[in-house]
Amino acid sequence: MTELTAILVSMVLSATPLLLAAAGELVTEKSGVLNLGVEGMMIVGAVVGFGAEYNSGSAVMGFAAAAIGGALLAALFGFLTLFFLANQVATGLALTIFGLGLSALIGTAYIGKPLPHLPLLDIPGISDLPVVGPLIFGQDAIVYLSVAVTIAIAWFLSRTRLGLVLRSVGENHEAAHALGYPVRRIRFLAVLFGGAMSGLGGAYLSLAYTPLWSQGMTAGRGWIALALVVFSTWKPWRLLFGAYLFGFFSIVQLHAQGLAVPIAPEFLSMLPYLATILVLVIISRDAKRIRLNAPASLGKAFRATA
């Protein structure tokens, strides 16, 4: 039971940055914008958040700075793709490369300087329950925030007028423009939200999951977050399940190495990424479902007409 509890709690911690980043990217893609720069925004959020908390002593300041850092990087992407009509795929890839380089430059001063762990929710008598206690009632505030944001996004997209407008822009930007909706403004705000969420996801790695700064610490999680959006077929509830599934794969390989399972550690380290590729291959076989669920204007540039 102790080993099972450790795996499940670690699974939640590992899934949280993926869920935050993927939730932001889902909203961005629902507006019709494909931003492949999630990895770059996450790593910038990680280093900016770490620096802010290290210098201020406040975790709240750290996460706030990370969200702002991710949003600023997303704003750069938004200006280039929405107003100057740069190619979204190429710009997103460039954003990732830029973010990795910028984070390495900023983070040089913070290598090897740890931070205190985020405080955990502790309810006497409940947090001590076997498995359920530490799993549900013994997490930090950002874990609960990630779940709450996912639920809020599901409600926003399916139950509100603004959510309907956002989806209409992603489905047919020409029709939305004809109805008088400001397509570029809506998409720009969605891009900013996606950047802020990616920044929070990166900050969770450096402020809570480790907590320390190391160069390249996102280790491809931004790409997994992008894959999660496709895995969920752009549905927030499936995104929640997918994030915890990938978190489970990430943690199982670590525990397997710790238990000296007779499998090459290099192969075990590949497990989360192999699972990502396998899931995408399985999903891609049902091209009809992908077409039905993906926003019809995803990745298409909008050129305003009179």
List keywords for this structure.
13 helices, 73% helix, mainly alpha, 306 residues, globular, ABC transporter involved in vitamin B12 uptake, BtuC, single chain
Distance between the termini: 65 Å
Largest sheet: none
Rg measurement, Å: 19 Å
Topology pattern, helix = H, strand = E: HHHHHHHHHHHHH
Strand content: under 5%
What is the mean pLDDT? 89
Helix and strand content put the structural class at mainly alpha
Domain tally: 1
| CATH top level assignment | Mainly Alpha
Strand tally is: 0
CATH structural architecture:
Orthogonal Bundle
- Any idea of the CATH topology? ABC transporter involved in vitamin B12 uptake, BtuC
Helical content class: over 70%
Poorly predicted runs of 5 or more residues: none
| Mass-distribution shape | globular
A few lines on this structure:
The chain has 306 residues and is mostly helical. Helix content is 73%, strand content 0%.
What's the arrangement of secondary structure elements?
Layout: H1 2-30, H2 38-56, H3 59-83, H4 88-107, H5 132-137, H6 141-159, H7 161-171, H8 173-178, H9 183-209, H10 221-231, H11 236-258, H12 265-284, H13 287-293
What does this 3D model show about the protein?
This protein is mostly helical and 306 residues long. It has one domain (2-293): ABC transporter involved in vitamin B12 uptake, BtuC (Orthogonal Bundle), CATH 1.10.3470. 73% of the residues lie in helices and 0% in strands. It contains 13 helices and no strands. It has helices at 2-30, 38-56, 59-83, 88-107, 132-137, 141-159, 161-171, 173-178, 183-209, 221-231, 236-258, 265-284, 287-293. Helix 1 runs parallel beside helix 6.
